[in-house]
Amino acid sequence: MLLDVRTYTCRPGTIKKHLALYEAKGKGPQTRHLGQPFAYLTTETGNVNQYIHIWAYESAGDRETKRAAMWADPEWLAYTQESAALGALEGSAVGEGPARRAAPRPSGSGGARRNVSIPGHRPT
Questions:
Q1: Per-residue pLDDT tens for 65-79?
Q2: In terms of pTM, does the model score above 0.90?
Q3: Smallest Cα–Cα separation from 50: which of 76, 83, 94, 18?
Q4: 87 dihedral zone (left: phi>0; alpha: psi -120 to 50; beta)
């Protein structure tokens, strides 16, 4: 199993608008290609301008194939353009997990991420 941990930081006061846009226009095409996230997390304490997605894949190849299909989907591309126009996301540094280096992201994909492999564990 490969876990792709993505941390997104929004500019103060914009996270609710950004998450509403994602729910309305981004979640559908993303989950159509990637499946349901392993976790989708927001917080009430700490940095309330951050949220985390964790995606589970069979392997790095599975991740690459699914994400390539998502980035070829016109509905996903339209969402990313609308998200960029909203201007809520700030740039974040890429975090790297101990088991696997993070692969380069397509331009405009936003967020930091960390990939973690769990030997012998398979997603459900």
A1: 999 999 999 999 999
A2: no
A3: 18
A4: left
- List for the chain the helix, strand, coil content (%; round to 5): 35, 25, 40
How many alpha carbons lie under 13 Å from residue 98 in its C-beta half-sphere?
A: 2
Query: SS3 of 90, please?
Result: strand
CATH top-level class of 2-117: alpha beta
10: three-class secondary structure by DSSP: strand
**What is residue 34's three-state secondary structure?**
helix
Neighbours of 80 (CB within 10 A): 19
CA 104 → CA 20, 40, 41, 86, 110, distances in Å? 27, 22, 23, 24, 11
Q: What is the pLDDT of residues 3-38, one digit of tens each?
A: 999 999 999 999 999 999 999 999 999 999 999 999
Q: What are phi and psi of 87, to 5 degrees?
A: 70, 25
The domain spans of the chain are 2-117
CB 10 within 8 A of CB 88: yes
